[in-house]
Structure formats: structure tokens, C-alpha cells
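Students often ask why inverse folding is considered easier than folding. One informal answer: many sequences map to the same fold, so there is more than one right answer. In these notes we will look at a single instance of the problem. The structure comes first.
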């Protein structure tokens, strides 16, 4: 996005309230004190006209205010407040000038509060500004109620009063103010004002805490989750907005209401209703994926998110697409050229489409439908590559995410502040990394998107943000952009750590973990990510075979996640903990007596030995915990659903039930494109067929070993390339060594049992070569 050096903001009336939430944050129509006041003055010739002192004073803030990241921003706010206070001291003010001055004082006061200056000892002039805001809104409302021509100020002052109440964490009072104000609005009020009131109420119902910026940190306290009754009230308010816009035939507002509902359903975890809501929004946007499409090949204005060549994936068909008849694969259908992805011309629809596609990718990744997720991800990439982020309602200026909704016969548009384009751009990399689950191959897309996202993040944070925010922005808005970017980088680092652990690249995982912790400490985000960081340490220790540390980290991660109400991390840590306990119990009980050596050496530190490591774990307690975890996994998305079925299979005494659970999990992971989990399931299924169907077991072991080896494939060459002296050398890494060793030993046993001495000899040599490349410290016990 281009950047300019303009420093002058609009009038104080345009210093709007603190922006609300991520996807849609609302602003009321911008007023102009010069326009309103000059219209009431008698026309004079240019040579004799003289601006009254009150008009000049009330207009000064529009010329003085500097952008929030300008060095003189605080000074401009201070001088603007002095001008408005001086204006209010002028005797015999007309009602319109006085009401405008009180409104400006409240707006400037909220700008001071939103910038955190009222809590800063270095700005004594800002102390006690909250009382001035309350006094200004009260007196301004009193004047506006006495004069029908000043009716518009009632809405603006009510919004400011509600914003102050929210800042004071008096959210119930803010909700009451907005509900009461909605009842006073009628058909004669401008649609922008009416819809603004509805959106303000929706935001207040979904708000839990208000962030007070601090000079020392940009990290707000972790918000408490909204109560179920507040979620229901917010959904009811959204439905009221949608009904009103449908009645008035305002399609863009109807679309906005649908996307608000979609976002609220996801944020509140009501996944069972999300797909239906998503289908309605996509239908309203005319988005259709019934035919496989080719993305647009346009020049990317950013030269960064060129992703058309990254979307080819070998995935199973989505469950929703697998019901097509076989005739669909005929040459006539195969040769059919699908139209390109739908594009959008106006800024509002483009912004709504971007948010809808991101939500769609998240939904179908969560439920494990990789084909549906890939379709939407490719569409998202096509829009971004085509310059979709270069939208701005203010002409050719830099993109700020501010879009307008115009109404027929109305001069005042509804202004909506959407997610800042800088955030959306980097977020696209994170969404892509999350959607690409397959870590197998020489260039796994999860790793590519994670690394490229970090590169894009570094470039974006170095760019000037001064003129990429609306003129009414405050320091709080700048802090929120920085905070979101900091969280996105942390998430990208987490994705990179995850794929490094899955590919047994432990050195890279260690380094990235250190970078993640340093980043979280720098931005005061460690508390928010502490459970995930601990879980990464648990997975890393588990993969290395450091069982005492893995057990300890799993326990700590469960405890922290429980305190922070992070259900997904708690469940993931619990699943890892119970799977490790199952593996240790089976190993100690002698189920792996056929192995040539233990997969994990006994711990050398006597103090680290606990009943679990001594083999004295209670199997009944393991079963209770395992079944509890497996049951919880059913409502936590496709990946955790598959993990739950694996745990059930490991705990089941019935072979048929265990096979059914594993086959179901295998189908789900194939649909989700998760080859890492698929390799484990293939190994477990092979063990079920080990004594009953040698051919099936060998086939599954071969696929398992192939996937495990693919976790170590590296770009730049093939395994077995020749060195300068003519000897062959291995270019690829080992991959998942414990799984490969286990699969090789099982295959060797099957070959010997069937009398295939040639294959057995070849397999034995391969196993020996693999053991030479593997150390015991990189092993991990199986859960079978």
C-alpha cells in the first residue's frame, strides 16, 4: 500500500469513537462544524466577511489534529481542547454552536482517553477528562433535545456516552443507553444513523472488556468470554438489523448483518450453525464452487502473495463432493473450462468477500474438508493477487479499510471500518499455513506459507502507517493494528514450530521456540500464549523421547490452559498426555517384547521417576481419562475427532471396534489432507492385521514408511545422489525415525514368516542402515 505524508486530520467531529471488533467496526457519519455553522450565517461579500470567534474556535481542531503516530499528536489534542474550552466561554452562544462545541469536547475527550493520555502522568492536562466528557454529553443532549434541528447530535452524543461507559467497564449501562436510543429513532432519521445505532448495540452486546492503552505495553488483559445470554442477545440484535435492512431494501446492510452473524457464531464456538450461515453469505455474494476453477493470473501489486503455484494438493475428495456420479469424469466434462473466480468491483463487497473467504477456509479446515477449504483459499489468493486490498472509499488515497455504504436519496453514507488491509495481508499467510495440513514432501506448503508469512510480516512492520489509518484514528487504533500483527507473527511461529516437530527437525524447532518466546516477551503476550508454548515443549520432548519432561510439560499445559479457559489447548495436551501413558503402560506391560530394543531408555535421574515411568500406572485410571478425552474430542473439529477415535481404538478390547474406529479416523484424515496423523493410523491398522492378513499389513506398512520418510524429504536433490568422490550420499533427512524403524521391523517379521528370504534380507539391510542414522534420543513410544 502506498504511503503519503499528510498530517492534517479532519474536523473534531470526525475523531470518532474507539473502533469496535475485527471484522466490522462502525463509525457514525462524519459531521462538519464549518458546514453546519456557516449554513446558518448570513451571506456576505468576501471583502466584508469575518468569521465569528466562536466559529473560529470550534473549527480549530479540524486544522490542528495530527495523526495518532505523529510526534505532535498529544500536543494537537491539548491545543484543540483549549480551543473548545475557550469557545464554550464565549457569551451568548447560539444553540447550534454550543451543541457542536459540547460534542467536539466529548469527541476530543474520548480521543484522549483512547490514546491512554488520561492515565499518563506526563500529560497532566489530560487528568480528569472523563468528568468533562460526562458533563459535555449531558449538556449537549440537553440542548439537542430542546431543538429539533439539532436532532442528529442526540445520536452522536449518545454513542459517546455509551463509549465512555464501556471504557469504564460499565457495559450494562452502555447497552441500556443504546437500547433506549434505538426506541427514539424513526423513519425520518437518516438510515446511516439508524444502522449505526444498531451496530453500536451489537458491538456493546459482544463486548466483554475495554482496552485502556498504556505507554509501556500494547497488550490488553485477556478478555473474559461473553456470557451465553449476551451471545443470544447479540444474535437477536443482528437479526433485527437484518430484518430492518431487508424491509428497507438495503442489500449491502443485509450482507453486513449476515457476515456479523457468521463471525459471531465462530467466535462463540457454535460450529454447528456456521456452515448454514456461510452458505447464505456465499449465495448473497454469488460465490459458487460447483465446478473446479482456475485462479486468475494477475500481477500482484505487493509482489508477495503469489500463491497460484502453491495450491496443488493430492487430497481425497470432500465428503460433500464424493456423491457425484461416475459420469462426471467423462472427457466432455473434463474438458469443460470453468470460469475464473468471481471478482468484486466496489470496496464494500470486496471487503466482505475477503472476510467471508477467510471464515470459509477456517470452517472447512476445522471440520476436515480439505477440498472445500482449498477452493476458498485459492479464491482468496486470486483476489489478493489481483489487488483486492487496494480498496479505499476516499479515492486514490492509501487503503485504510474504511468503506462506505450509500443509500438512495441520502447524502450521508454509512462508514464502516473493516479490518486494516495490513492485518488482512499478513493474516492471509497465517490462514494459508493453517489450512495446509500436510507436512510430507520436499516443500510442504505449511512450512512455505509460515516462512513467507514471517518475511511479509517483517516488511509490513517497517512501512509507515501514518496515512494508512482514517483521519479520526487514535493511538488506540494504531496499538490495535500493532497488537494484531504481533499476535499473527506469534501464530506463524507456532505453525512453523509445529511443522518442524512433525518433520523431526528438532534443531529448527528449538530455535523457533526461542524466537517465539522472545517475541512474546517483547510484546507482553507471553501470558496469552503460555499454554501453547508449554504444549510445544511437550510435543518436542515427546518426539525426542524425553519422557519425564514430556509428562511434566503436558501436565503444566493442561493446568495453564484450564486457568485461561483455552479448551482446545487443554484437550490437545490431555490427548498427548493420555496417549503417552498408554504407550508407556503397553511397553512396560510387555506388549512390545518382540522388539529388539526398547524405544525409550529408562530415565537416569532417580528424582524424575514417577509411578507412570516405573510402570505402576493405573490402567483403569488411564481408561477413564482416555474415554473422557475421546468423548470431548467429538466436538472439537476434524483433527481432534480423529485423535479421539485413535485413543478409543487403543483402549478398546474388541478388535472389530478398534478396526472400525481406525478406519473411520483414516477416512477423516484423508479427507482433511493430514498425512502426519494418517501415517500413525496406518501403523495402528497394520498392527491389527498383523496376524490375520499379512498382505494388507505389508501394504499399510509400506504406505506408513513412505509417509514417515516423506517427513524428512528436503528440497534441492534426491536421496542417494553422488558426492564428488563418486560415493552415494543421503540428501534427505531421516523423517520420523521411530515410526520407520517400527514399520521396518514389522515388515521384516512378515517377510520371514511368509518365507520371502530375498525381501527379508533387503528389509534387514534397510533397517540396519536406518538404525545407524538414528539415535535413541530421537525415538518416541507408540501408542499401540
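Output (designed amino acids):
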Amino acid at each position: 500500500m502506498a504511503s503519503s505524508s499528510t498530517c492534517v486530520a479532519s474536523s473534531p467531529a470526525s475523531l470518532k469513537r474507539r473502533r469496535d471488533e475485527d471484522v466490522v467496526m462502525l463509525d457514525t457519519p462524519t459531521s462538519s462544524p464549518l458546514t453546519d455553522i456557516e449554513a446558518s450565517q448570513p451571506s456576505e461579500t468576501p471583502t466584508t466577511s469575518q468569521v465569528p470567534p466562536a466559529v473560529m474556535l470550534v473549527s480549530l481542531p479540524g486544522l490542528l489534529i495530527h495523526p495518532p503516530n505523529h510526534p505532535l499528536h498529544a500536543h494537537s489534542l491539548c491545543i484543540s481542547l483549549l480551543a473548545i474550552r475557550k469557545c464554550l466561554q464565549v457569551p451568548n452562544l447560539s444553540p447550534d454552536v454550543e451543541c457542536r462545541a459540547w460534542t467536539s469536547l466529548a469527541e476530543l475527550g474520548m480521543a484522549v482517553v483512547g490514546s491512554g493520555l488520561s492515565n499518563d502522568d506526563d500529560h497532566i492536562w489530560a487528568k480528569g477528562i472523563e468528568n468533562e466528557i460526562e458533563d459535555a454529553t449531558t449538556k449537549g443532549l440537553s440542548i439537542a433535545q430542546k431543538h429539533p434541528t439539532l436532532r442528529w447530535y442526540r445520536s452522536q452524543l449518545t454513542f459517546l456516552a455509551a463509549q465512555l461507559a464501556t471504557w469504564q467497564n460499565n457495559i450494562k449501562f452502555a447497552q441500556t443507553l443504546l437500547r433506549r436510543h434505538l426506541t427514539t429513532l424513526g423513519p425520518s432519521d437518516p438510515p446511516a444513523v439508524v444502522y449505526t445505532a444498531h451496530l453500536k448495540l451489537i458491538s456493546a452486546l459482544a463486548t466483554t472488556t475495554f482496552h485502556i492503552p498504556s505507554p509501556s505495553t500494547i497488550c490488553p488483559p485477556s478478555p473474559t468470554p461473553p456470557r451465553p445470554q449476551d451471545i443470544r442477545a447479540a444474535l437477536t440484535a443482528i437479526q433485527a438489523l437484518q430484518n430492518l435492512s431487508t424491509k428497507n431494501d438495503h442489500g449491502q446492510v443485509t450482507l453486513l448483518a449476515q457476515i456479523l452473524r457468521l463471525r459471531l457464531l465462530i467466535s462463540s464456538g457454535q460450529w454447528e450453525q456456521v456452515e448454514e450461515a456461510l452458505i447464505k453469505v456465499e449465495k448473497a455474494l454469488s460465490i459458487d464452487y460447483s465446478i473446479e476453477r482456475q485462479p486468475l493470473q494477475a500481477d500482484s501489486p505487493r509482489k508477495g502473495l503469489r500463491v497460484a503455484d502453491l495450491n496443488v494438493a493430492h487430497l481425497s475428495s470432500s465428503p460433500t463432493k464424493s456423491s457425484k456420479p461416475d459420469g462426471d469424469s467423462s472427457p466432455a466434462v473434463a474438458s469443460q473450462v470453468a470460469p475464473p473466480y468471481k471478482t468484486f468491483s466496489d470496496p464494500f463487497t470486496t471487503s466482505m468477500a475477503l472476510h467471508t473467504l477467510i471464515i470459509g477456509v477456517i470452517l472447512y479446515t476445522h471440520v476436515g474438508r480439505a477440498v472445500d477449504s482449498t477452493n476458498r483459499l485459492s479464491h482468496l489468493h486470486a483476489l489478493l493477487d489481483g489487488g483486492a486490498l487496494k480498496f479505499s472509499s476516499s479515492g486514490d488515497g492509501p487503503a485504510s479499510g474504511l468503506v462506505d455504504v450509500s443509500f438512495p436519496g441520502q447524502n450521508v453514507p454509512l462508514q464502516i471500518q473493516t479490518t486494516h488491509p495490513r492485518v488482512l495481508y499478513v493474516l492471509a499467510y497465517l490462514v494459508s499455513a493453517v489450512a495446509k495440513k500436510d507436512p510430507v514432501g520436499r516443500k510442504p506448503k505449511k512450512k512455505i506459507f509460515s516462512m513467507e508469512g514471517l518475511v511479509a510480516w517483517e516488511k509490513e512492520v517497517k512501512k509507515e502507517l501514518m496515512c494508512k489509518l482514517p483521519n479520526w484514528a487514535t493511538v488506540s487504533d494504531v496499538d490495535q493494528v500493532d497488537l494484531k500483527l504481533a499476535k499473527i507473527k506469534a501464530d506463524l511461529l507456532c505453525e512453523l514450530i509445529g511443522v518442524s516437530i512433525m518433520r523431526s527437525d528438532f534443531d529448527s524447532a528449538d530455535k523457533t521456540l526461542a524466537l517465539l518466546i522472545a517475541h512474546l516477551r517483547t510484546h507482553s503476550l507471553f501470558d496469552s500464549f503460555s499454554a501453547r508454548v508449554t504444549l510445544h515443549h511437550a510435543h518436542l520432548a515427546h518426539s525426542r523421547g524425553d519422557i519425564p519432561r514430556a509428562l511434566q510439560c503436558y501436565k503444566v499445559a493442561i493446568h495453564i490452559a484450564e486457568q485461561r479457559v483455552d479448551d482446545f489447548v487443554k484437550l490437545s495436551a490431555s490427548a498427548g498426555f493420555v496417549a503417552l501413558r498408554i504407550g508407556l503402560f503397553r511397553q512396560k506391560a510387555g506388549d512390545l517384547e518382540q522388539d529388539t530394543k526398547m524405544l525409550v531408555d529408562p530415565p537416569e535421574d532417580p528424582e524424575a521417576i514417577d509411578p507412570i515411568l516405573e510402570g505402576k500406572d493405573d490402567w483403569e485410571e488411564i481408561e477413564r481419562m482416555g474415554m473422557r478425552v475421546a468423548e470431548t474430542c467429538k466436538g472439537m473439529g476434524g483433527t481432534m475427532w480423529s485423535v479421539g477415535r485413535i485413543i478409543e481404538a487403543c483402549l478398546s478390547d474388541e478388535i472389530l471396534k478398534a478396526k472400525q474406529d481406525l478406519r473411520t479416523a483414516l477416512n477423516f484424515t484423508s479427507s482433511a489432507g493430514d498425512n502426519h496423523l494418517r501415517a500413525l493410523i496406518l501403523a495402528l491398522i497394520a498392527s491389527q492385521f498383523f496376524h490375520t492378513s499379512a498382505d494388507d499389513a505389508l501394504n499399510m506398512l509400506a504406505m506408513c514408511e513412505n509417509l514417515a520418510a516423506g517427513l524428512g524429504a528436503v528440497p534441492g536433490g534426491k536421496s542417494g545422489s553422488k558426492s564428488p568422490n563418486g560415493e552415494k550420499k543421503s540428501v534427505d533427512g531421516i523423517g520420523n525415525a521411530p515410526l520407520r524403524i517400527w514399520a521396518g521391523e514389522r515388515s521384516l517379521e512378515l517377510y520371514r514368516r511368509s518365507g520371502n528370504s530375498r525381501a527379508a534380507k533387503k528389509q534387514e539391510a534397510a533397517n540396519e542402515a536406518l538404525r545407524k542414522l538414528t539415535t535413541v534420543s530421537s525415538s518416541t513410544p507408540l501408542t499401540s
